[in-house]
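Shipment paperwork, digital attachment
Item: protein structure file
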Amino acid sequence: MKQEGTTQEDATLFEPLLRTGKGFYVTVAVLVILIAWGAYALVRQWVLGLGVTGMNRPVFWGVYITNFVFFIGLSHAGTLVSAILRIVKAEWRRPFTRAAEAVTVFSLPFGAGSIILDLGRPDRVLNVFLYGRFQSAIMWDVTCISLYLLSSVFYFYLALIPDIAMCRDRLNVGPLRARLYKFLALGWTGSERQYRRLDRLMDIMAVWLTMLVVIVHTVVAWIFGMTIVPGWHGAFIGPYFLVGAIFSGVGAVIITTVILRRVYHLEDYIKPVHINAMALFHLSLSLLWLYFTFVEYFTIFYGNEPAHMVVFNAKFWQEFSPMFWIMVACCFVIPVAILSNPRTRTIAGAVVASIFVNIGMWLERYIVIIPSMARPRMADIGSYMPTWTEWAVTLACFAFFALLYTLFTKLFPVIAVWEMHEARHQSVPEAVGRVRSYMPGATASSLPEE
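Attachment content:
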């Protein structure tokens, strides 16, 4: 597939890179203020110590570790929507791929960074690299997340190269951005040979990243599951975390793409049919999440092991019960009620459901971590209440994520232009041939050529 000339449709995708309205500067200013507030709180924490947080003995993990698990879960959105759907040749994925990959790349650093925020002495993170031992699940986690980050950035960059070359050749921008595009394009000319190599390499990376998705969040879960802490120690925690990560990640992709659709007027690319497909997928994940949650807690209830039942009762009937039942409402009751009804499964309905899902999944991480630490086996009952410092740093992390995403949309097209060209000229005929091959009497000649 050769590099095409600029069309009117392409101009719509490149327009956000050339025109910037007041809303962009207002958004950036608000995000910078939130980041500055969080930075002040973080510096104050480093100076005064972790005493300014709500963490204590025995609850020495709190909101920061909750954010760690949550952001790592969000990062699975890009791999799922882009890599896995690429493997199964789901053509409706194309308007979502870049937005989803950007969620992965920009959320992973905040997941890994939340571990550093939790340390009273951030310099001690170097001990993991200097004296780390692979007998510890912490080292498994560091290795997997580092590998996942590098692989995701590489996959993200691969898919950007053809569009960066288009920016280099077609956009009338300043000399600094022109040099940036020229450097990042790596001499791309858009030849058939280059596209064949790109497709082959992206297929390989898609399979590799699909495997990493399973490994990474399973290992994240093993940080908890490999201990003997009540409520954590169990073989089921790995797949339970994985399903929750994909669940929240898909919700993040829906929210992000709908915002991009509205702000950059991409209604011709991100259509209701695309949102409907993602919403149905989200609905199935909500049902799957309910199954995993039921199995997890029913196993604990049926086993009736005293230490585990103390944590179970704290979640279901005692001080953590409001959060637990709000989590159930946000992750199951509300999204199923909205997405199972065709009249409410609209673009707005999908966004509302996704917002509730992500609120519920953040609460789920909190509910997994805090009650088990507040009900230790051989110590007094503990309590935990996050302080303004933790909330300020948390808000700054989300604001920083949004800022990076916003700046990205002003440098590169948010929809993969070259993939839309590929869909129009190659994938549509292949899909027609594939459907014809399913019909009675189809012959080998009706199959699409590779």
